[in-house]
Specification:
2 domains; Ubiquitin-like (UB roll); 11 strands; three-stranded mixed β-sheet; alpha/beta; Rossmann fold
């Protein structure tokens, strides 16, 4: 064996000791780092630094920011680590106005709530007050409007139920151009048709229709009135086919009937 390659045991011992010392130091440093990290995490979690500092709400129109925050049960005392996003979203979606809710965390301590409200399709008149009617047919009885709304049709003689839901569904199928032209919708059932409605339009015309065919016929409203004299108002009957009766003609018939009755009595 080559004597030049032989390392004396006395020479190897210091090197082994140095290696062991370095390993021990590295382990100690790692343990100390983990220890202080745990202390810092515990201190952070238990301190106000880990509380929600800001709650951001997006997408709300009918609902106020305070209402949404109240429903979410979040506050500035809520620990950011205890926020359950899915649970909060489900609680928010139980509110009639809210169609969908998403909760996001924006570190270090902000919670963002994005909501999509159901579409307000009309207002229901009741005792000279007006209540929003949503796209799911629900009436928001806790959101009374004292003044006459101008941004949606007003419904008269309706109540929550199948007829109202069918009316809302029919209105949702209309183009915005036609929907915005409707001023009032009255529920006027007949013995032969419990689905009969009467509409008063912003342009002065009246429409008589049945919910069974209302949306498919009412879509053509712009084309129908384009064929009529705008100075002669009357009733557009869409129940069976489509025809127009001027108010003047109705008044003339009424006068003739009264004259004939007077002659008969004489």
């Amino acid at each position: 064996m080559d004597k030049g390659k032989i390392v004396a045991l006395e020479d190897r011992i210091p090197k082994l000791k140095e290696q062991r010392r370095r390993k021990a130091n590295r382990r100690l440093i790692i343990l100390l780092f983990l220890f202080f990290t745990m202390i810092a995490v515990v201190a952070y979690v238990q301190s106000p630094l880990s509380h929600v500092k800001k709650i951001t709400i997006k997408g709300n129109d009918l609902l106020s920011t305070n209402e949404i925050i109240s429903t979410s049960h979040l506050s500035k005392k809520t620990n950011i680590w205890s926020v359950k996003k899915d649970s909060i979203a489900l609680d928010l979606q139980k509110v009639n106005v809210i169609k969908e809710a998403k909760v996001k965390m924006v570190w270090p301590n902000t919670v963002m709530i994005e909501i999509e409200e159901r579409k307000k399709i009309a207002y229901l008149e009741s005792d000279n007050s007006y209540y929003p009617v949503m796209e799911n047919g629900k009436i928001l009885k806790d959101r009374e409007v004292a003044e006459i709304p101008v941004n949606a049709p007003i419904l008269f003689k309706f109540k929550e139920g199948a007829i109202l839901k069918e009316t809302v569904s029919a209105l949702l199928e209309l183009p915005d151009e036609v929907l915005n032209a409707i001023s009032e919708v009255h529920y006027t059932p007949k013995k032969t048709d419990q689905y009969h409605i009467s509409l008063f339009m912003n342009d002065g015309f009246e429409v008589s229709a049945t919910l069974r065919s209302f949306s498919e016929k009412m879509i053509h409203y712009p084309s129908i009135i384009s064929q009529l004299d705008p100075n002669k108002k009357g009733i557009i009957d869409l129940e069976v086919g489509s025809y127009f009766k001027a108010y003047e003609l109705e008044a003339e018939k009424s006068e003739e009937s009264e004259i004939e009755n007077d002659k008969g009595e004489g």
